[in-house]
Amino acid sequence: MRIPPRITRLGGSAALLSLLIASGPVTAQAANPATTSTTAHSATAFRAAAVGSVCYSALPSQAHDTLDLIEQGGPYPYEQDGTVFQNREGLLPDRSTGYYHEYTVITPGSDTRGARRIVTGEQTEEDYYTADHYASFDLVDHDC
Predict the structure, then answer these.
(1) 125 is known as an active-site residue
(2) Of 4, 6, 88, 104, which one is least surrounded by beta carbons within 10 A?
(3) DSSP 8-state code for residue 123
(4) Rounded Cα–Cα distance for residues 69 and 73 (Å)
(5) Which residues of the chain have pLDDT under 50?
């Protein structure tokens, strides 16, 4: 299984800053029931705002295990680990196919892969955690 290259060596804060710069401006607007159309720009801004952040120390221990395996290059517990993540939900910043890869975060007591994943980007420490099978993402801050 090929591990995606981490092309830039950045700390967690710099990685978050570069993510925000690459994503462009993010604005929040109150919903207006009288408005029936949504521009592509505001839809993009809403999706970018859907990515939160989480401290590395606040992740479940199994996510730490998964991040350690990614750094070591495996072996991974599931055949699907390391495969390309398509970002079909459009919640992560828009990148070319092959930019993101997904890895299972083991859920104790689950007979399946469960809903928890780490999705990595190509940059160092560009790791996203989802506990709800891609309904939401948090960028992992490795400095806290």
Answers:
(1) no
(2) 88
(3) S
(4) 6
(5) 1-49
